[in-house]
Amino acid sequence: MKLFYQEMLGFLLVIITSIVIIGSSTIHFATIQAYSQSYSRLEGYGTSIGKLALAKDNPRHELDAKFLKNLQVVMEGEDVNLRIFNNKNRQVYPETTMNWALPQKLFKQLKNGKTIRIRNDHEDGRVTSFSNKDPYTSVIVPWRSNGKLVGVIWIGSRVQNVEQMIVREKHNLITALLSSLVIGGLISFILSYYISRKIKLLSSATKKVAQGDFNVHLKHKDTDEIDDLARNFNIMVNALKESNDEIKAQEKRREQFMADAAHEMRTPLTTINGLLEGFEYDAIPEEAKPKSIALMHSETKRLIRLVNENLDYEKIRNNKISLIQSRFNATEVLTNLLTQMKQKAIQKNDKLILDCPSEVEVYADKDRFTQIMVNLVQNALQFTENGKIKISAWRIKHGAQFEIADTGIGMSQKQMKYIFERFYKADPSRAKIGSGESGLGLSIVLSLIKQHGGKIDVDSEPGKGAKFTVTLYDKGYKEFIKD
């Protein structure tokens, strides 16, 4: 069953249930009121007639038969009948040859001054011995003088007269309830349509997202829970869109990496294969053999480096390496680094500058710290020509900071957003042979720094170089640093 019909049925069931409960209560109340009013009216008549019988000028407490006959004529106008019994429980009006009497149980209660109410004498069964053909609603009122019973009056009205009022109330109630049902049904239809329409829109939007369309946006007014769901749906779709865009970008970078890796591997493999064939067929002169062997060594190392960078990144990313951290002098590591990188800097016509005190204590894994600095300096050399690269270090409170600043091509804000992601190259057209061309260098740097509990910041503008600032904290202090 569709939600629209479920909503309609639900609303109608609530309305019908409410109508039944209210209707039953109202009819019950109207019935009680009708009989209460009838009892009060009849008791009023009985009490008034009793006052005449108990008047001071009537010491025998007897009412004239002619008066009672005339009174009965008046009472019949309101469809009211009466019977009078003396203190001996004998009917004295209307006169009858039959020995009409009240049941002894009732008469005993009347002697004690209790007024008896009978809703339907045919159903009650206590006074059927003197009731008429039609059922009556009646009261039996005792007349007492000086604490003694002097007479009893039975006064009643046909039940149908009382129930006419109830029937009229039922008709009015049924008319009102039918009107309420029609209006309620219309309101239910409107509400069901309103709710179903919003859910239908949400369902349609969900199907589009499932088909890969992330440009879906649901309008909402924040008026109910469905609007909250629509708002959360929009947030989810935006997140999925960003994630999908990121996956596509990662896939594009992966494809580029595979192409670059294939290219980088093909070149040294081709070189090595050509030289091996030359050796096999003795096509390489003796004087050229040492240079050829050195070239094969160089190309082999390049292949090993490409493979190792990938393996190293996977181990670091999956926390499969163990850091052996200790305190050491970072200045010594940086001095050795400049010595190693000097030849590469000369090839690029770059100037390496070390600006730090003779001793800068740092708490880190020495080998991994060296790897971080090597990758950052290689990255600076890769994108800097005819410029300078400055490496600075200093102590800060609870740690040490290191800055690698170059005067190279720089980066835009968009490029800085992705430079630490795997396979990303800020400027693929400027990538050269050497470490860093795989697009993994900075990814490894970020992973290692995170495992040390440190942080790295980047500041750059296109054409104005780039500055990387690494912060490594002392032992124990990183535990209090927020991400």
Automatic annotation (TrEMBL):
The answer to whether UniProt assigns keyword Cytoplasm to this entry is no
Checking PROSITE patterns in the record gives: HAMP, HIS_KIN
Ranges of residues in domain Histidine kinase? 260-476
Residue ranges of the HAMP domain? 193-245
Of the GO CC terms on this record, one is: membrane
Location comes to: Membrane
| GO MF annotation: an example | phosphorelay sensor kinase activity
What parts of the sequence cross the membrane? 12-32, 173-195
The kind of enzyme this is, by top-level EC class, is transferase
Q: Where primarily located?
A: membrane
Which catalytic reaction applies to this protein?
Answer: ATP + protein L-histidine = ADP + protein N-phospho-L-histidine
Q: Which UniProt keywords are given for this protein, alphabetically ordered? A: Kinase, Membrane, Phosphoprotein, Transferase, Transmembrane, Transmembrane helix, Two-component regulatory system
Q: What is its EC number?
A: 2.7.13.3
Q: Which PANTHER family match?
A: HISTIDINE KINASE 1, TWO-COMPONENT HISTIDINE KINASE
Provide the protein name. Answer: histidine kinase
